[in-house]
Design a protein that fits this description.
heterodimer, A: alpha/beta, eleven-stranded mixed β-sheet, ten-stranded mixed β-sheet, B: alpha/beta, four-stranded antiparallel β-sheet, 9 helices, binds adenosine-5'-diphosphate, binds magnesium ion
């Protein structure tokens, strides 16, 4: 039955459905990176001086940095001079417009992706910021949210409309020198989303950003900043897709979350960048820095991610638990099929007293996929009574793929409680035969088993996203039986 | 119902079944006994369609159709059920979901619509009660962390929900205490029907005290060395398998 096991890789994942290219006239910078590129991006956005300075500092620092080599991924050296750092549809030249002025070609692109931008068509309760290459093309329900005091807009708009908030919070969680790709992002980021939830407000709808890479030879460098003020609550979703191309494309984003006293952010990602073809040709390099800071007491954040796309994924959504009793959670499903590589995990940094963190990581490897969990749990000297629970499971399909686990624990406070569980399993011939003998097809059996494996993560996703995530994995939803 | 003709099966060049002939009519219960390693489980796997065996000779007809040509699922849909000697754990998949997927697979094959969820649960709960199984097993992962006896009971539960026409039970009695054995046997007896046939693979006469077979066959070294009525099982119990082993030479 060796043959059938090899075919397991075909049962997981699906053909890439979002690989089309939108035919639209774009304005792109020629490839290349120097201070003038950064000045040009800043000028395009009509940015205040402080931001340009901030970018340039990041760039100058970046020039002194070495490309990181520690991740368990392999790819040829990236030539940063061959990338174009800015590309935007010409129709967007005058900045973001009202919804009914947006180029119909763009509207139809998002419709095709299942993200209708017309407000009346949206499923109730989800506001969308649509980022296309280097710019935000539309943000829905802005006005309705504004009534509730919630600011939800593109990053560029926030720079113009909310310069004080930007000044106060930008780079305070991920500094512009943080790491190689974060510094690059700080230098050249072109857009992204901005959210501010004021004191005591429970955001009346789910917020989401949908990232689309369309232009060839460009990198996408977006930046998201979310601030949850005292006692507020928001659930934020993020999705991403790109056309099928033979060249690799770089996506290097930074996400900063600031959570103040008694506030909560729930951040969910369904990452479906083009993964490359079955021979490992093409696909997105997804090198992302995501970090949340529970800055004050009783703050809570949870990262939930379903990573099915990208040729290479490299991200560690992390939490700095500063406030006492603050809580950080990380729930992750990462699938690597064909020649995909993922090195992903989290960092939970405990500083406050009685802080607690939970890490649930599920890695699925199929084909020649390589899947690495890398996690750090760090308990500071003052973190009395800190607790962490880590569970890290790997599922292997076939025998050409790999799963690797690198858990790091550093603790400076003896009162900490740290639990770690790990498992590696395979879908066995016995399981398949057993299911099939009961009249369940091999395909359904695999989907059932994978779904069961991911259950603890899926239940953290908002309903619509859970359905999408399961569809992406090519697995069926365990019914509402009972 | 089932007709096995001169069945020869090898694994990796080693012949395990060496010319099996067996005919099982509708409504009949056949016990197959024999020492360890005689090929009983292999025979059950061949009927269910497990891969990895070379069928070098012979054929198997199921209701007149060539069983060996059918895929594993097709056999299941057509009514072949194997209660495994070692039921397999399926982590993360709840028993109720598994049962529902299995039953709907069969119903789809029969051109029936999916069963209403509420009716389905009620039916399953009823059958669990008969098997003295706690309802909590519905929501536990299939066989995961079940005791040996619980796994065997779960096999019988699946069998009574799926209502197959040919039930092959591979050592369902082993590992059961006497109370559990009785419950399982009653479960099987409830399913006895003029249209349903049973193949009971067992090591011991004990099971046959509770489920009365119509025929008993002794399998040794890949052959049926003796067939008879229920009294043959008693004879075996008294004399042991050494008695059939002596016939090895013949
Ligand atoms: N997959 C296999 N590979 C090699 N030998 C096997 C395999 N399956 C069964 N056998 C051998 O075939 C013989 C019969 O096994 P089995 O059918 O399990 O017997 P029983 O169920 O009567 O105890 C044994 O000698 C066993 O070792
Ligand atoms: Mg056996």
């Amino acid at each position: 039955m060796a043959a059938s096991n090899e075919n397991l890789k075909d049962m997981i994942g699906q053909e890439y459905k979002d690989g089309f290219v939108t035919d639209i006239e774009s304005e792109s910078f020629p490839p290349g990176l120097n201070e003038d590129t950064i000045r040009a991006i800043s000028a395009k956005k009509d940015e205040p001086e402080f931001l340009l300075e901030w970018r340039l500092e990041a760039y100058r620092h970046w020039l002194t940095m070495e490309h990181p080599e520690w991740a368990f991924v392999e790819f040829p050296k990236i030539d940063f001079q061959e990338i174009s750092y800015y590309s935007a549809p010409k129709s967007m030249a005058d900045g973001p417009k009202s919804l009914d002025e947006v180029d119909p070609e763009l509207i139809s692109t998002y419709n095709k992706l299942g993200i209708p931008l017309e407000e009346q068509m949206r499923l109730a309760g989800v506001a969308v910021d649509a980022v296309f290459d280097s710019v935000s093309v539309a943000t829905t329900f802005k006005d309705k949210l504004y009534e509730a005091g919630v600011i939800f807009c593109s990053f560029s708009e926030a720079v113009k409309e909310q310069p004080e908030l930007i000044k106060q919070y930008l780079g305070t969680v991920v500094s512009q020198y943080d790491n190689f790709y974060a510094a690059l992002n700080a230098a050249v980021f072109s857009d992204g989303s901005f959210v501010y939830i004021p004191k005591g407000v429970r955001c009346p709808m789910e917020l989401s950003t949908y990232f689309r890479i369309n232009a060839a030879n460009t990198g996408q460098f977006e930046r998201t900043l979310i601030i949850a003020d005292e006692g507020s609550h928001v659930s934020y979703l993020e999705g991403c897709t790109a056309p099928m191309r033979d060249e690799n494309q770089l996506h290097a984003a930074v996400v900063e979350l600031v959570i103040l006293k008694d506030a909560e952010i729930k951040y969910s990602t369904v990452q479906n960048w083009y993964p490359g073809d079955e021979n490992g040709v093409g696909g997105i390099y997804n090198f992302v820095t995501k970090r949340a800071e529970c800055r004050e007491d009783n703050a809570k954040v949870s990262w939930t991610q379903v990573e099915t796309g990208s040729a290479i994924t490299w991200k560690y959504p992390s939490v700095v638990l500063k406030g006492d009793n603050s809580i950080g959670e990380f729930y992750s499903v990462a699938l690597t099929n064909n020649y995909q590589q993922a090195d992903t995990g989290t960092k939970m940094i405990h500083h406050g007293k009685n802080t607690s963190s939970t890490i649930i990581s599920k890695g699925i490897s199929a084909g020649h996929g390589q899947n690495t969990y890398r996690g750090l749990v760090k308990i500071g000297r003052k973190a009395e009574g800190a607790r962490n629970y880590t569970q890290c499971d790997s599922l292997l399909m076939g025998d050409q793929c790999g799963a690797h686990t690198f858990p790091y624990i550093e603790t400076k406070n003896p009162s900490a409680t740290i639990e770690h569980e790990a498992s590696t399993s395979k879908i066995s011939e016995d399981q398949l035969f057993y299911c099939m003998q009961r009249g369940i097809s091999a395909e359904d059996a695999v989907s059932m088993i994978v779904n069961g494996f991911c259950k603890e993560v899926f239940k953290e996703l908002p309903m619509e996203f859970a359905v999408e995530a399961q569809a992406l994995l090519g697995i069926s939803l365990e019914g509402s039986v009972g | 119902m089932l007709k096995i003709e001169d069945l020869h099966v090898s694994v990796e060049g080693k012949e395990i079944l060496r010319g099996i002939n067996l005919e099982i009519g509708a409504g009949e219960v056949h016990a197959i006994m024999g020492p360890n390693g005689s090929g009983k489980s292999t025979l059950s796997y061949i009927l269910a369609g497990r891969e990895g065996y070379d069928i070098t000779k012979g054929r198997v007809l199921f209701n007149g159709k060539d069983l060996l040509e059918m895929s594993v699922e097709e056999r299941a849909w057509a009514g072949v059920f194997l209660a495994f000697q070692y039921p397999v754990e399926v982590p993360g998949v709840s028993n109720i979901y598994f049962l529902k997927a299995a039953l709907n697979g069969i119903r789809k094959y029969e051109g029936l619509s999916e069963l209403d969820a509420m009716d389905f649960i009620a039916t399953v709960k009823g059958k669990m009660k008969e098997l003295d199984m706690d309802e909590k097993f519905l929501y536990r992962a299939v066989n995961e962390g079940f005791s040996g006896g619980e796994k065997k009971r779960n096999e019988i539960l699946q069998m009574s929900v799926l209502e197959p026409s040919l039930c092959v039970l591979d050592e369902t009695d082993s590992g059961l205490d006497i109370d559990a054995l009785q419950i399982v046997a009653e479960g099987v007896n409830r399913l006895r029907d003029p249209k349903r046939s049973f193949v009971l693979i067992t090591h011991y006469q004990r099971l046959l005290d509770y489920i009365k077979p119509d025929f008993v066959h002794v399998l040794a070294h890949g052959k049926v060395v003796k067939s008879g009525g229920p009294e043959l099982a008693l004879e075996l119990e008294e004399q042991g398998y050494a008695w059939v082993d002596e016939k090895k030479a013949s």
